[in-house]
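ingest -> validate -> predict -> emit
validate: passed (alphabet ok, no gaps, 220 aa)
predict: started
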Amino acid sequence: MTLDPLPETDLTRHRRLRDQGSLDRADLNAVLDAGFVCHLGVVIEGRPLVVPTVYGRDGRRLYVHGSVASRSLSGGTPVCVTVTHVDGLVLARSVFEHGVNYRSAMIHGEARKVTDPEEKLAGLRRLTEHATPGQWSYARSPNRRELAATTLLVLSLEEASVKIRTGPPDDGDGPDAERGLWAGTLPLTSVWGAPVGDPALADETPVPEHIARREGTRYA
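emit:
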């Protein structure tokens, strides 16, 4: 299925390195689906505040989680959410040409605070399943007190920008290529390790299959 492209707005227009920019909604979904940690930027009392938190994508909506003590998650104000995955260092012959291979997304909009209990429960399920598929049905669901102590924001994915850089350094055909220096990329890959059980577990408690099968698989 072909997805409609992301609209280009004054906030999402790529002004630098336009060749790395993308208006493909599939690229946005891929960047978001590859991770679960974002940085939420908001202005509080005239000062910028950027908070790391977890998120979950549900179609064209993004749920962002936090506690009621977090001032940044009050809702009703413009926010900017960023997600970045680093895929490696780009080491050129000249320091000026050094760079990073990466995938990033930036989402702009006004976040709405989720207050309806059913929507909040559904949003928390999406957030949990986004990070660890299968965990929602395995663990205990939140009770009323825990729901009341949790803030959940929902943000439209309609105003977003994506940038992706891949490949070798850009100075292979320049004068520095004659220096005889090594140049290339240093890839960075993160994988999930072996599950480490809580010391309080009974010895016979097995690791759930949905967790065990992630060992050795790539993150992001």
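Residues 94 and 176 are 7 Å apart (CA to CA).
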